[in-house]
Amino acid sequence: MTTPAPRWKAPAPFNAPVSLRANVASFMALDVMVRARRREQEGHDIVHLEIGEPASPPPRAVREAAIAALDGRPIGYTEALGRPSLRVRIARHYRDAYGVEVAPERVAVTTGSSGGFVLAFLALFDAGARVAVAAPGYPAYRNILEALGIETVTIEAPEDTRFVVTAAMVEAAHAEKKLDGLLLMSPANPTGAMMSGDALRDICATCERLGIAFISDEVYHGLTYGEPAQTALQYSSQAVVANSFSKYFCMTGWRIGWLVLPDHLVRPVERLHQSLAISAPYLSQLGAEAVFEAQAELDAALARYASNRAILLNELPGMGLDRFHPADGAFYLYVDISRFSGDSLDFCGKMLNEIGVAATPGLDFDRTRGHHAVRFSFAGSERDVVEASRRMKSWLR
Ligand SMILES: Cc1ncc(COP(=O)(O)O)c(C=O)c1O
Predict the structure, then answer these.
(1) Which cofactor names does the annotation list (predicted)?
(2) Residue of 219, 249, 284, 291 best suited for mutating to test ligand 1, as the one with most atoms within 8 Å of CB
C-alpha cells in the first residue's frame, strides 16, 4: 500500500511587511494627475495645469532616431555610464551653451534626473547624513532622501527673496547643525525663480568652504524668459549637476537625464548604476543624442511656454490672484490663494470637481506654508491655459 503524498498546506495567514522607509509622502502633483485623468475617463472636460510636462511631442529627429533603430538589431544594454557618443555630445553642450569645458568622462547618463538623484545621493551620502533642501521645493527630493535614510533639513526660503535660498541661509543652517549636503534648483519648481550668477557662485563657494556637498538641479535650464541660467560647473569642480531631457528637450516619458560628476565620483556612480539600472534605456539614448540638433522645434516649444506665461500673468491678477513671482524660468507660477482659502488641498479638489481645472496644492512643495498656495503649470497647450483662465474667472467671483 502506498501512502499518499502529504498535501500542501497553506501557511498561517501572513502579510508581507511594509518597510518604514517606504512610508514617504505621496507626490501630490501625480495624485492630482491620476484623479484628473479618472474624471476625464468619466466624461468630464478637464484642463491640465497640474503637471510639468511639455505638451509638445519629442522633436522629429528623436522619433526618427528611435524608429531607425527598430530594424531588427538588438535593443541592448549600454555602458552603465551611457553610450560614449552621447556622453561626448552632452559634454559639448556645456561648451556650446555655457562656454564651460567638461570632460565627457565626467558625464553619467541616467534614467531621468530622478534616477540621477538616487545615484548621486547614494554616491555622496551615508545613511544618517543631513542634506538641506529648500521649501517651497520639489517634493521628490525629500522623499528620495528619506527612503535612503538620509535626514532632510528644510531651509524655509522667505517670500521676499522670491523663495530663493541664499548662501547666508545655508551658512546659518550649517551653524545650527552640521550639513553634509545641499540640494538646490535654479530655475526652481514651483516658483520659477532663478538664482543670479553671483548668488550661485556664493552658494558654490560657501559649500566648498564649509565642506558641504552641493547638488545643483538644472533640469529647467533652457527654459528661461530673460537672462539664461548659469550652471554650477562654472563655479565649482566639486558640484554635482543633475539635468534631464524631460523638460526643455520635451522627452519626459523617455526617462533619460544625466549627471556631471567630480572625477572621484564617476567610478562609484558607475558601480551603483551597473547594479541599480544597468544602463539608461538604449532607444532613449539614441533619441537624446539626436535632440541636440532639434533647435527649431525646441525654440517653438519655448515660445509656447512664454506665450502661456504671458496669458496667466495677464489673467490671474484680475481674478484676485495677484501674489506670485512672475517666473524667470521653468513653466510654473506659484500663486498665493489666501484670499480664497487656507487649505490648498481642498481648494484644488474643489477646483477639479467643480470646474475641471487641475492644479497642484502648494502643500506638495511646502509642508508648513503650502496651505496658502497653488502651483499652476503652463507647460501644456494654449487651449488649456486660456480655458482654465476663463473657468477660474467666473468660479472665483
Ligand atoms: C526640479 C525637478 N527636478 C527633477 C525632476 C525630475 O524630472 P525627470 O526625472 O523627468 O528628469 C522634476 C520633475 O518635475 C523637477 O521639477
Answers:
(1) pyridoxal 5'-phosphate
(2) 219
235 & 273 share domain: yes
Q: How far away, in angstroms, is 113 Cα from ligand 1 center?
A: 6
Inside any domain, residue 60? no
Residue with cell 551620502: 125
Interval 188-244: pLDDT, tens: 999 999 999 999 999 999 999 999 999 999 999 999 999 999 999 999 999 999 999
153 within domain boundaries:
yes
Mean pLDDT by 10 residues, the chain (397 residues): 74 85 84 88 93 92 96 95 98 97 98 98 98 97 96 95 95 98 98 96 98 98 96 97 98 97 98 98 98 96 97 96 96 97 94 95 93 96 96 93
Last residue of a domain, one of 274, 293, 312: 293
| Nearest Cα to Cα of residue 69 among 258, 285, 238 | 285
- Are residues 329 and 255 part of one domain? no
Number of domains in the chain: 2
The reply to whether 164 and 279 lie within a common domain is yes
**Residue 58 placed within a domain:** no
308 and 251 within one domain = no
**114 C-alpha to center of ligand 1: Å?**
6
How many contiguous H segments (helices) and E segments (strands) does the chain have? Answer: 12, 12
Task: Show the domain range for 175.
Answer: 70-293
**What is the number of other CB atoms lying within 10 angstroms of the CB of residue 306?**
14
Q: Residues with Cβ within 6 A of ligand 1?
A: 52, 112-114, 138, 185, 189, 217, 219, 244, 246, 252, 257
Nearest ligand 1 atom to the CA of 53 is 14
Last residue within a domain, chosen from 252, 277, 293:
293
Expressed in angstroms and rounded, the spacing between residue 209 Cα and the centre of ligand 1 is 28
H or E stretch covering 37: helix 28-41
- Dihedral sign from CA coordinates of 351, 25, 214, 248: negative
Tell me, in angstroms, the distance from the centre of ligand 1 to residue 122's CA: 18
Closest Cα partner for 62 from 302, 301, 291, 297? Answer: 291
Q: How far is the CA of 256 from the centre of ligand 1 (A)?
A: 11
C-alpha pair distances (Å), 310 with each of 189, 316, 356: 18, 10, 22
Which residue carries 563655479 as its cell? Answer: 235
